[in-house]
Known about the structure:
The complex is a heterodimer.
Chain A: H1 2-28, H2 34-39, H3 45-55, H4 61-73, H5 87-122, H6 127-141, H7 144-158, H8 173-207, H9 210-217, H10 222-244, H11 246-260, H12 265-275, H13 278-306
Helix pairs in contact in A: 1-13, 5-6, 5-8, 5-11, 6-8, 7-8, 7-11, 8-10, 8-11, 9-10, 10-13, 11-12, 12-13
Chain B: H1 3-14, H2 23-26, E1 29-36, E2 39-44, H3 51-56, H4 67-73, E3 88-94, E4 98-103, E5 116-120, H5 125-134, E6 139-141, H6 146-153, E7 158-173, H7 183-192, H8 195-202, E8 206-208, H9 236-245, E9 253-259, H10 262-275, E10 281-287, H11 289-296, E11 303-308, H12 314-322, H13 355-363, H14 367-384, E12 387-400, E13 403-404, E14 423-424
Helix pairs in contact in B: 7-9, 12-13, 12-14, 13-14
Amino acid sequence: xxxxxxxxxxxxxxxxxxxxxxxxxxxxxxxxxxxxxxxxxxxxxxxxxxxxxxxxxxxxxxxxxxxxxxxxxxxxxxxxxxxxxxxxxxxxxxxxxxxxxxxxxxxxxxxxxxxxxxxxxxxxxxxxxxxxxxxxxxxxxxxxxxxxxxxxxxxxxxxxxxxxxxxxxxxxxxxxxxxxxxxxxxxxxxxxxxxxxxxxxxxxxxxxxxxxxxxxxxxxxxxxxxxxxxxxxxxxxxxxxxxxxxxxxxxxxxxxxxxxxxxxxxxxxxxxxxxxxxxxxxxxxxxxxxxxxxxxxxxxxxxxxxxxxxxxx
Amino acid sequence: xxxxxxxxxxxxxxxxxxxxxxxxxxxxxxxxxxxxxxxxxxxxxxxxxxxxxxxxxxxxxxxxxxxxxxxxxxxxxxxxxxxxxxxxxxxxxxxxxxxxxxxxxxxxxxxxxxxxxxxxxxxxxxxxxxxxxxxxxxxxxxxxxxxxxxxxxxxxxxxxxxxxxxxxxxxxxxxxxxxxxxxxxxxxxxxxxxxxxxxxxxxxxxxxxxxxxxxxxxxxxxxxxxxxxxxxxxxxxxxxxxxxxxxxxxxxxxxxxxxxxxxxxxxxxxxxxxxxxxxxxxxxxxxxxxxxxxxxxxxxxxxxxxxxxxxxxxxxxxxxxxxxxxxxxxxxxxxxxxxxxxxxxxxxxxxxxxxxxxxxxxxxxxxxxxxxxxxxxxxxxxxxxxxxxxxxxxxxxxxxxxxxxxxxxxxxxxxxxxxxxxxxxxx
Lengths: 313, 427
């Protein structure tokens, strides 16, 4: 297991390098000018040139690239072009808000999606199954930001149950939870639609297997057949896709953070893209890539727990 | 704050290597002299009656910085570590979330009533509006959208302040690109652009602009002093006739990049529709705001929609949009997208310019003569039609009735409510 983990971490390095390179050149291909974004529309060409010089933006691309790589190896994520603040300092505060959201959206997605998928599979081809499938397609197609606005309207504005602005102080767990609930629910409901469809599909495949028929004919209770035999064997593809879908969850968290005004990584990235704040964009995307890779690693390790036949060396 | 801080500030701003976006304004300064502890003399290279309003103080430049801070620690990232003399002090800044201020008990005009205030950065309109309606926010910057204003007004406690200083809007014709170098073509497009269409779209926040300078600005050419033919009122048949005379009876193609901001994009879309009967096909390329600003400064557009609020004097508008040195592509470029002052605008073989009129007006001490010079410049610009003035959109500020700004809001140069005398009433 340890060897497997070390091998995976080492393999992550070239992946991250590719991401860094693609992101570095892609953001510079966006068009627009960070110096103008900072100085505003009245800036003269001379003032823009002075700022570009100061920020190193008029250096050759290869020099900017190697400089960025070198800084990354030392853990330096660069400085916000606009304020000069270290990006690492900005992210230290922002990342917990995004991680909270991604994790709890996934938990909600699983808590709703898995039981719903099991039920739909067990009631296959009945009205309940059709309703479930419809809700699955509907939920899967529904934009997260729009659902966020609806939840905000109902539960914050009309009912006043939840706050509207911000993410709460990180050290205050109650406030943190209150600010997290609606955004996590918004993303989680959409994720549950996806999980439900996958669980249903996977369960249906397993429920028709011979060993399920054998288990029933041995007189085992139905809940034992479903949860101990069928569900466990159907979980691997579900777990795989939840992990793959994490990237989509991260993307959704960006738009949800904007609606709920959560000071997470997503909100920083949106602002940074508008401002052409290269260090924030580059470092932000690298951080997100590392996060997704860690999730994938945890997913792979969980297979050994789900299926004892799987061993890592 | 003493004169040493003032001298330090302006000496610093004069330095073109500083890279201040407003640095060009301060090149007008010849010398800054300390007279006594509380008196400073700023000597200009030429007379400029607008120096105080536009160039010196507090609108987009000229905030006094602390000399001691600058010399001891440098002024890098001053925005985060600002030392000032205003009514509020920065307590906390959380990037992308909020900034918290506390009152300055030593404020020279008396400590403000409000002890503490938070300003949230909320770019999403829907959530900002809901938070305001709920009462989590006492005041917000509103949307220049008549439907939004009507919706918000439904909440009983809401007061909408729609005030100048507004942003003037014009559609500029790039006269370096054919066929916009032809005066008849530009006049045809101007006459086919019906201001009423924009009035219908923007509703209550819309104010007609018939001169190159927005109507709420000092020395803007009044409508009643503008000859009828220079108002370019809508007349489709006349526009078609002019276009045919210019040699384009079937129209032509134009292209323009435009930002995704709704009050910009709508202008282009309305013009696109209004010009269709002329056979003019306007291709609109939507990009994000940063790319829009970069592209129009690379002279990529045939037509350019631009909004701007500036110091409310004719000089600021005319200098930035119609002065030859401000032409795009020059080292001194600002926002002269039409290149007026650098091209032959009327086809007589000579370069047309209002530079002399602007410079003469700037230095004219007699108020009435100054106005006349600015009027003359604006009339000339209208004759040559480098840009059709469309409208001025006033600022939309909204507050609950328990937020009392403490002053009557007749106009504001800042993008928000003045807070020095503001207070929160019991509610």
